[in-house]
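Table S7 (text form). Paired inputs.
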Amino acid sequence: MFTLWEKVVFVAFVVFAVFYFVRSFRYRMALVRTGRPDGRLDHPLQRAIRTFLWIFSQRVVTRHRLLTGLMHAFIFWGFFVFSISTLDLTIAAIFPWSLIDHLPGKAAYLTLTDIFSLLVMIGVVALAVRRFLLRPLSLWPPEGRPVLVNEHSKQHPQLKSLLVLGLIFLLMVTYDLYAAGRVMQGEWAGLLPMAYFFSAVLQPFQNQAAGITHLFWWLHIAGVYLFLILIPNSKHLHIVTGTINVFLQRHKPYAYIEPMDFENEEYFGALTLTDFSQKNLFDAFACIECGRCQDVCPAFEARTALSPKWMIVNLREALLEEAPTLLQGQPGENPVVGTLLTDDALWACTTCGACMEVCPMDIEHIPTILEMRRGQVLAEGTFPKELTPALKGLENQGNPWGVWQGERLQWAEGLDVKVLKDVKETPLLFWVGCAASFDDRAKKIARAVAQILLHAGIEFAVLGDEEKCTGDPARRVGNEYLFQMYAQENIELLKRYGVRKILTICPHCYHTFKNEYPDFGGDFEVVHHTQFLQELLATGKLKVKGGFSQKVTFHDPCYLGRHNGEYEAPRAVLEVLHPAEYKEMPRNRDRSFCCGAGGGRMWMEETGEEKVNQIRTQEAIHTGAEVIGTACPFCMRMLEDGTKEVGAQGVEVKDLAELVWENLERS
């Protein structure tokens, strides 16, 4: 039983804790609302189902860090297991009634809480050892690295984590001691190993069992509501915001970015905090600072100034620091470039999508970076000087190589390739792309594809000098205006010819046609050449000799794999070829490592201490492969350069179309 004063104190403490939590949460949501509106409430049932499965299965934390994720899962599941107990203890302080005593499965529930108290303690200890003794780079501010870290984050960087982990551990201990007191009084019985263990420890105090129960009830429930007060002021707010963020996930590929409405909006990218979308800002309060994004970031591994983790952490700190100004309806005071990340870091991103693939909270790093690039290019007119030739080439010649359009068809010299303006219509348009039109090495890919199509009797045509860049490079480096100009021109041209199906060898073109042109009325069926080759081989329209003697590995292009989920078609083609040995690189499929060319990096110099393409090339070489298979002209160029730069001997880089053409049965 509780005295009147105890009830008054308890109720006051609970009211204060709840009030403080709600007030703090609303304060942060008011900061989020200072951003640009970003509707994410379509398909609510689909979103709710995905969120439930994604969060409660804890697959989000276990799939890439099994042991660490399992420890986190123990704590997460324990939170829900103990929610009934917390409600019961809260009710018991005010009313002489027990929720647990009225549960149909009381004994089973008590056993579950007892077991989870141990699992949670194991999880807390394991995570504390990892964080404070093993000190992985993903959790601590990097020393001796050019990564921009907010000054507040450098001061006692793990103090809040220590407090939270310690409090969770104490909550479990105090619960077990409370349960031990109930056992000592003969109230609870069953399979309760932790409660019986602590009751044995407290056996000398058997006569004080009621007092022990009362004391540890107070310590436990006070800890629970103290935790509620602590949550909003730490990254552990993700308990609430993380679930919401997963619900708000954008059902688009990682590299997708919302189009700008130049006619009706005066918005030219993110220069200050209020230029970001509300989802961009909400991400800041959903981040758990686990560093998974940083672990897989090719720019960070190459020791550039970019860390996707610290960019998001800096965003949160910037919002809190500028809150008085933002909540008065004023734009942010400080420029986001220089506050969230350095100028070098902004341009180091390859938009490979690895960060978003591994993020358990569905944080959208790439759109945040691209919005800042838009701001620099469109509003400030600043970008790396190396991009000048590529952007001028796009503006003046219709391609980032800056080559005269009249040379677009030189790759097809000697081949009976039809041009669409001559034949007027075609069931299949072969979109060659700029790389395969102007890069001497990539031209061989275009020739291989065309020869395969001709051999198989596939009716197709190309645009020739009417083909222009899809605009992908312009959009990835922030020049949205130039991208939209090409999108509209290309869509108009394709519709005029009645094009319905497009075959492309470039994953960047594939992504743009498939996911971004529909925003401008360009709805076409688009097929990547590996998908087309798989179909031709499966239907017997192509037959290969198979069994070629070289050892092969395959590099997954980011814009084919992670951004569009195509991993099987290239491997199906390789399986038909029957190489002497096929061996996956350690990082493959959705964990594949970028070649370094995406996000406009194809036309920029490396800024890190290491080169992304060399890191990936070394990984391929270490498989023992004699041939590195690719399915992207950009990847082809980066990996070929990589083999030369690292001095690899006897290693070739070939597109899968080249391998098929070389091994084709030509009776």
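Next pair, protein 2 of 2.
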Amino acid sequence: MSLFASILALSLAGAAPAEDYRQRPPEDEIIYFVLPDRFENGDPQNDRGGLKGDRLQNGYDPTAKGFFHGGDLAGLTKRLDYIQGMGTTAIWFAPIFKNKPVQGPKGDESAGYHGYWVTDFTQVDPHFGTNAEFKAFVDAAHARGMKVYMDIIANHTADVITYKEGADGGFRYRSLADYPFSRRGGVKGAPVNPGFAGDHVADADNWKKLTDSGFAYTPVVPKGEERAKVPGWLNDPIYYHNRGNSDWVGESSLYGDFAGLDDLATEHPRVVQGFIDIYGRWIDEFGIDGFRIDTAKHVNPEFWRAFVPAMQARAKARGIPNFHIFGEVYVDAAVDPGALAWYTHAAGLPAVLDFGFARAAIDAVSGTKGTGEFARLFDGDALYKGGAGAALGLPTFLGNHDMGRFAMFVKAANPAASEAELLQRVMLGHAMLLTLRGVPTIYYGDEQGFVSDDKDQLARESMFASKVAAYNDNDLIGSDATTATANFDPMHPLYRHIAALSEIRRKTPALTRGATKVRAFSEKPGLLAVSRFDPDTGREVLLAFNTSAAPLSANIAIDMKSAGFTALHGDCPASPAAPGSIHLSLPAFGTIICRASEEAKTTP
């Protein structure tokens, strides 16, 4: 029996009987987001991806934060007990497609351990395993009633195409106005692509007239990489924008290369159908349960309006009625529901990652602002297509692999805080995440007190014993451990806290599908009180959080029908102070969850 087969057998042996997971709506899930390379090394034989040479050829260097460390599908399967033990019901992992092992200018190379430099969209990267191992992993998760979400990319591929006009990596964006499709070399250049009406005309006959891909820069495919990409049509430069690097504003957000990555012409009908075929196959053959869409805002909305319905139809045909699709629209600067909601209308995305929630939680729990951002956030739920009901399906989170870890923000804002206070604050943030509206998403390692030093590579620590010095010098929250040893401790206070709140959430429909009514908030650190209502019975569940370092007491408005309460978490009074009002006392950084246990009797 192979190593992976042994791990799979052990995983299935320990699996609980699967519920009918296909029938769960997206808002019922609790998601665990993981980078496979940084989770667990289940099969050391694939650490180098079957490639020869040193780290610049095979991408493997466990001492460097920007290279492969050895985590794989075998490791994920081995640790399914651990993942499920904290109450998570769905696993979302960074892309596992075959990547360009190493890229970047000389002296500044890094590896595709994160999965976002795809060359072959049809195969699992050999550093992670095989397609057969992925199928076995999906089956093992499904046997436990857990869903599997894939991270997908349509905006770009790995950096293969270079440009004739200059040195690799130094290409400033060339605009549609200065370099139209109709000229080679700029407005006054030689005519090319006669009859092409522009990329806003989607019919195939129009795109057949675009025959010269050198309208801005002249694309060059290096020798030996002519067939680097799979499917084969991806190797033709005509399917790329070839306009140089995005500066992240205006039209360059759609047409520019993402930090040098080859930017696909997602307006092209061939590209649209190509990605429908690619990702439809992963649904058909592997029975996955959802897609997280990378860099969604850097793709034209028309692409998503064609792609999303096609994926939903493929999923339904495969017997997957609740296929969860959510896009990454990275807006980290402020709580701005409108900036996110736009993509549910114009692009037709069913949901987007709720960066507004993350910002509100970071500001409130770190004490840099009050709790009023949450009130404004929930007021904005009406802006999403489908209104507040649709907002229930927004994946919420506290930190991630791009922006950095939640504990890092909390610690940076409170440099003098004790370890005990930092743990209390981080636990408060997870209480908000697991009880307020949206689909809570746990970033791997947060449940073990990982802190991170910064964003991107510095927020992507390994759960198995790390050899990266920049990771191993971090003081983890809630334990004396470091990342130099494996961190899969089910007794860690954050792991147990998440598990306890996850159980409350699963057993309380108001916390998964209930409407939200803000009861109280403060523009300074202090109280946030929210009522959520059972979608079937209408019974109230009152949530109260104290983001300040001092205890507080307050009278809070409640539903007039709520005559008695049961404490689900914290010290909850058994009855209201008066009809329509309850008196709560919360400790510093405390959380209270009160469920109405009876209704007031009305006088005939």
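The radius of gyration is 25 Å.
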